[in-house]
Design a protein that fits this description.
single chain, 116 residues, alpha+beta, two-stranded antiparallel sheet, 6 strands, elongated
Length: 116
C-alpha cells in the first residue's frame, strides 16, 4: 500500500470543517499544527507593525494514494481556494515509507479495493 501526505494550509476558522470533510472522503486521521503564518504573492497587510492576516492551521493527512485526489478536492471546496486568493493551499507529496499505520492498512484494504 502506498501513502501520500496531504498538507493543507487553511484559515483557522475552517479547520474543523476541513477535518470533517476529509474524514468523509476517506481520511482516517490527521494532525493539526496551529498558528502557522505565511505570505503569498502579495505581502501581508500590517497596522502599526501588527499582522492583519488571519491565523492559519497546517493540516497533515497521511492517506492512501487512491484516496488522495478526492480528499484534496473536498478540502479545496470547503476552503474555497479557487474563489479568492489568499484562502490557503493544499498539496500532496509522496511518502516513501511509514510506520505506525498498520491498523489503518487493515481498514483501508476494503476501501481501496472498491476504488480499483
Amino acid at each position: 500500500m502506498h501513502f501520500k501526505l496531504i498538507i493543507a494550509l487553511v484559515e483557522d476558522n475552517v479547520t474543523d470543517a476541513v477535518l470533517e470533510a476529509a474524514r468523509d472522503a476517506g481520511a482516517k486521521g490527521s494532525t493539526v499544527i496551529t498558528s502557522a503564518r505565511g505570505e503569498g504573492v502579495k505581502k501581508s497587510k500590517t497596522f502599526f507593525g501588527l499582522n492583519l492576516e488571519t491565523q492559519r492551521d497546517m493540516v497533515l493527512l497521511l492517506v492512501e494514494e487512491h484516496l488522495c485526489r478526492p480528499i484534496l478536492e473536498v478540502i479545496s471546496d470547503v476552503c474555497k481556494f479557487e474563489e479568492k486568493p489568499g484562502r490557503g493551499i493544499a498539496f500532496q507529496i509522496d511518502v516513501e515509507d511509514a510506520v505506525g499505520v498498520s491498523h489503518q492498512i487493515n481498514e483501508l484494504y476494503s476501501v481501496v479495493e472498491e476504488e480499483l
